[in-house]
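Team,

Forwarding the record for the chain on the shared tracking sheet. I've put the sequence and predicted structure together so nobody has to dig through attachments.
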Amino acid sequence: MNESSPVLSLARVSRQLSGRVIVEELDLTLARGEVLGLLGVNGAGKSTTLRMMSGMLAPSSGAVLLGGDDLYENPQRARRDIGYLPEEPPLYGELNVEEYLRFCARLHGIDRHAVKPAVEKAIERCELGEMRQRLTSLLSKGFRQRVGLAQAIVHEPALIVLDEPASGLDPIQALRLRELIRTLAKDHAVVLSTHVLSDVLACCDRVAILHQGRLRHSAVLSEIDADSALRVHIERDVDNDAWMRMPMVASAQIIDTRRWRIRLRDGVSVSELAKAINDCSFGLLELRADGNALEDIFVRIATQPDTPEAAA
């Protein structure tokens, strides 16, 4: 992979089905170390876009570039350099968790001698140690999601594509998933599709909003909420001094001892605050724009009237 190129580039990508436009002239780029939040109502074209990004669905026109190379001219790159978690994890019920991850590692092209350490690392990252010998067909929804995430990262891909990864997770599991996504972003490029705006605020560096198959808004999250306070809900009782010891916090206004209105210093991203909260073991339950800037943008775009060429 060409290290000087973005990990992922979509250049005027379109997809049609039976004469209907599903995705139209979509341009996006994503670099290593970035998490992109992909938002849109049902039928906006998100799943189609994710499938094109992951090498599962060829565009009708335009190009999907992985490290500067056309993905669909070299489809084997998808197996080696992309990890994909669809909304419904692709599990084989007759295999236990460890067997399934070994199978996935081999499918992704990992050398036979490297399979065991790769599987062990994925099990540890996704906290699956107690479930490693359990059949995947007997797992709860939350653990099925974790196994699906493990298979997406077992081969250490350059690009990780996640479609609603928090589906079925309880609040504690969802919090740990956010932490894992931020950890993955250190060495990978990550695309996160979700309906939960607080997940976007906690995990993502940038947001792209699709509507009717077109890209309607793309922005750096820190710019969206630069002038807005953040509403933070945590598990622990803390005081104002605890917040002000964080170098990225400009001011902290108490709502109650577990709910605060926080303003960040210039140039600080929301994800930096989320990491600091987790590092201090405050127990992050919710992090969102108090002024609802991202929500306002999303609702305004999502409520635009449908057009005949709308994608679904």
